[in-house]
């Protein structure tokens, strides 16, 4: 679909007419030369997906490599972009009672009685198994909104109430996780008696896998016999195929099993009046969509921008037409180079995205850290401008002046010029929309000012002579702006674009300082642009990018 945010896309090529006026030639002192040097700002946003890299030293290693290539480490800013989010979810007894789904586990030849909320009752922060009606088979609750949970840490308290409890003959209780449905899941359980319950464990605690309703013990160990007032703090850590269970702070069980990689969680009690669960909390990790990742970086004004994605696998968002439209719009409008540090698994996808990103980016094999880091630094260095214009500077762009010979840049006092031999006269009205004159205009100074923070023309003096060049021009960037109106019809979009661009230094001229524009448009899946203004009618059902 045609999205309104495509108006963010500005691939700007503006030619300025008459911007700098006429320069009056004046004989310069050939012994003093002025040059403008660029101070590039480099912003690197690092997104880490599925990778085996240890990134502890990434920033220092990258800066060291760039320093070897002549780029000051002080100009490099590396920021981490979160590709995963941690969700902490705590469920109290009242919330479970109201919003979780109740269920019965059919096992041991017992038929399920009608499940009622009277099977459990609330006491403070505890959800306690009651003695109302049949206590067999096992019954409990699970969270119906938790089935997308992957890596997670489950924490809860299990125990026997000190005052409301029944005989300790046949009790069993379990916490379910990575639950696919009521017949497929992992469970941590504590058992008090053999020959009954969901499994015949003969007492103890265990990690079990339930597949199509069939229980299999993966690991087990001893557990104290149930008693009134019993209280056990349990933590289950499920990370990839690794499952670890801690009881009261000590590791009790550990298995490696990859049958289920994600799923819901819940609990049950079999035949034990007074058994309870409380303080259930889940800290889980979920992978963010790349459309979320691309929104995070904070780019400095005028910086060279690189999004470095350390990912071994294919990223689903990059192959989705609507999601990739937003990703491309943000990268193109912010002039971001995409660097995919990946493997042969996702190389084709990275190269396809780079092509659609106006060929700004590169694929780098990440199998060898040192080699990949060197290639990354080479690519960044190749994209950075380090030589300034001879006379023209853009306001707020990082540049500085250098003097040849360098000894004449500072401490230039003489008997004839006790305050110094440098003087700069600032014409703040040379361009339209001036912002005032610099404070040191027309004053003799011992040191040459190296930066300029106001637009206009600056005439330089060194003693009674002009250095070369005599004039420097500080101007502002043109402003690219337009309005977009899209009306959806049955078969086509009706599109109306109105240009509102201007050059603040020549805003009141007939063409607002803009002598030429280059409009382009394309479908988001295309790798080449169509020249010209986007057509006034385009078919619905497709995503488009356009800009100028």
Summarize the structure.
The chain is 11% helix and 40% strand.
The quaternary structure here is single chain
Low-confidence stretches: 1-30, 108-115
β-strand percent reads: 35-45%
**Helical segment count:** 6
Kindly provide the radius of gyration, computed on alpha-carbon positions and rounded to a whole number of angstroms.
35 Å
> Total number of β-strand segments?
36
Termini separation (Å)? 21 Å
Largest sheet: 8 strands, antiparallel
Class from secondary-structure proportions: mainly beta
Average pLDDT, rounded to a whole number, is: 83
Q: What is the share of helical residues?
A: 10-25%
Coarse morphology? elongated
Keywords: Signal
Signal peptide: 1-28
Task: Write a structural description.
This protein is 11% helix and 40% strand. Strands 5, 7, 8, 10, 15, 16, 17 and 19 form an 8-stranded antiparallel beta sheet that branches. Strand 13 and strand 14 form a beta hairpin. It is built from 6 helices and 36 strands. Helix 1 packs across helix 6. The protein has 548 residues and is mostly beta strands.
């Amino acid at each position: 679909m045609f999205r309104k945010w495509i108006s963010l896309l500005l691939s700007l090529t503006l030619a300025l007419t008459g911007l700098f006026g006429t320069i009056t030639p004046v004989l310069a002192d050939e012994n003093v030369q002025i040059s403008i040097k660029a101070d590039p700002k480099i912003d690197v946003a690092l997104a880490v997906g599925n990778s085996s890299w240890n990134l502890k030293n990434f920033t220092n290693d990258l800066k060291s490599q760039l320093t070897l290539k002549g780029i000051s480490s002080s100009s490099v800013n590396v920021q981490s972009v979160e590709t995963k989010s941690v969700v902490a979810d705590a469920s109290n007894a009242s919330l479970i009672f109201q919003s979780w789904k109740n269920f019965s586990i059919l096992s041991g030849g017992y038929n399920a009685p009608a499940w009622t909320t009277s099977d459990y009752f609330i006491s403070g922060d505890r959800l306690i198994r009651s003695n109302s009606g049949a206590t067999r088979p096992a019954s409990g609750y699970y969270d119906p909104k938790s089935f997308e949970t992957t890596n997670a840490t489950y924490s809860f308290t299990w125990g026997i109430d000190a005052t409301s409890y029944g005989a300790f003959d046949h009790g069993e209780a379990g916490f379910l996780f990575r639950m696919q449905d009521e017949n497929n899941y992992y469970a941590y359980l504590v058992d008090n008696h053999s020959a009954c319950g969901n499994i015949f464990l003969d007492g103890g605690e265990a990690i079990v896998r339930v597949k199509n309703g069939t229980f299999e013990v993966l690991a087990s160990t001893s557990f104290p016999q149930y008693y009134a007032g019993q209280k056990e703090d349990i933590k289950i850590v499920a990370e990839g195929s690794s499952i670890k269970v801690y009881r009261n702070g000590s590791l009790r069980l550990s298995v490696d099993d990859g049958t289920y990689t994600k799923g819901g969680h819940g609990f049950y009690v079999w035949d034990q009046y007074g058994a309870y669960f409380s303080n259930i909390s889940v800290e889980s990790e979920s992978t963010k969509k790349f459309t979320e990742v691309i929104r995070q970086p904070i780019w400095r004004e005028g910086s060279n921008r690189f999004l470095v994605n350390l990912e071994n696998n294919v990223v689903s968002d990059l192959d989705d037409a609507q999601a990739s439209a937003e990703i491309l719009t943000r990268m193109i409008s912010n002039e971001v180079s995409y660097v995919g540090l990946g493997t042969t698994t996702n190389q084709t996808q990275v190269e396809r995205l780079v092509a659609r990103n106006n060929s700004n980016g590169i694929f780098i094999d990440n199998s060898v850290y040192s080699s990949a880091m060197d290639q990354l630094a080479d690519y960044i260095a190749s994209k950075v401008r380090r030589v300034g214009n001879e006379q023209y500077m853009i306001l707020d762009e990082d540049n500085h002046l250098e003097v040849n010979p360098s000894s004449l840049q500072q401490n230039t006092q003489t008997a004839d010029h006790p305050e110094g031999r440098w003087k700069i006269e600032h014409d703040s009205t040379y361009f339209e929309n001036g912002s005032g004159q610099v404070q040191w205009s027309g004053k003799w100074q011992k040191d040459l000012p190296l930066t300029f923070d106001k637009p206009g023309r600056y005439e330089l003096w060194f003693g009674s002579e002009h250095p070369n060049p005599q004039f420097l021009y500080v101007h502002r960037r043109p402003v690219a702006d337009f309005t977009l109106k899209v009306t959806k019809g049955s078969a086509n979009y009706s599109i109306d674009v109105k240009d509102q661009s201007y050059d603040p230094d020549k805003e009141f001229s007939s063409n607002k300082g803009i002598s030429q524009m280059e409009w382009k448009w394309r479908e988001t899946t295309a790798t080449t642009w169509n020249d010209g203004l986007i057509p006034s009618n385009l078919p619905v059902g497709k995503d488009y990018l356009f800009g100028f």
